[in-house]
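Structure ticket #2291
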Amino acid sequence: MSQDVGGVVARDTTAAKPAKARSKRRILLPAALLLLLLAAAGAAYWRLSHPPAAATSVTVFGTIDIRQTQIAFNDSDRIAHLYFHEGDRVTRGQLLGDLDEARLKANADKADADVEAADKTLTRLLDGSRPEEIAEARAALAAAVATEANARINLARYNTLSPSGAETKQNRDNAEQTLKVATANREAAEQALALALEGPRWEDIAVARAQLASAKAAAAYAHRQYEDAKLLAPANGMIEDRILEPGDMVTPQTPVYTLDLDDPVYARAYLPEHELGKIRTGMRAWIETDAYPGEKFPAWIGFIATTAEFTPKTVETTDLRTALVYRLHVYACNPGGRLRLGAPVTVIIPLEDNAPGGQAATPCESGNGR
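Resolution: structure written out below.
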């Protein structure tokens, strides 16, 4: 539409502007779509020509755990001394405490005396008769022989005088009985000499040997009880709790100390199922903890569970909590006690040049092992 204003024809351009905009949009839209397609094709080509690098490690998360043992005396009595408190470090075989030893020492002394007596009895039987005992038996036999000979002479005299009435029949009968007694005494002396020469019976020696063995066994038991009055540390560790005090009565079922076996410790972590095929027992690993930022503790894989389970809620991982995982124990030496029970840790397991059974997979020098 146009108007004649002062001889000049003026045209209305308001209707033409929308038409130009629509025409411009029709040109730009296909161009934008083309650019998007080219960008997508370029990205796809780049992915195909640059595959993602293979993972060089597996990272899992968990917490530090330790083993504990309840230490008790192996005997029943009253506690005399306890030498350690909570937080003290002890070494294997170190004396932790002892019981009242009076009763136990008396039993051990009595057992030793019984052994000595049984040993002397056996020795006497094995040595046989002493020369003095044999000589004494010979002398007793000679005396018996002489007594018998004298009784025989007296009886012969009475037999001669009795018929003529010079001796009574009673005296003659007494002489006869005296001869019988003398003969019996001579025979007994002969048997005593034979026994002295032959020595003790083998049955008596066997009984004496058995009595000595029994006495030795009783003495060993008594001394073991005496030694059990001392409480020794079964392994290296730290006293977590001192349960009883001197003066308390104890039995083998009564714990006295709680001992933390904290070298090595282990991280209880959970391995995602899709990583299971990459990890083997004995592989090296590293443990990191927020308490010591930037420091890595050498470790090794000590245990992989054979049964899958759901991720515990206390474990933070980057995977979904409903994913199946396998419990993992990653051991680490802890000579300074810096890895504490319950501390959250990150476990990094290298996949390159990490065959199971390397040097890092050996127990710590403390001797606690795994």
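Closing remark: Residues 259 and 369 are 15 Å apart (CA to CA).
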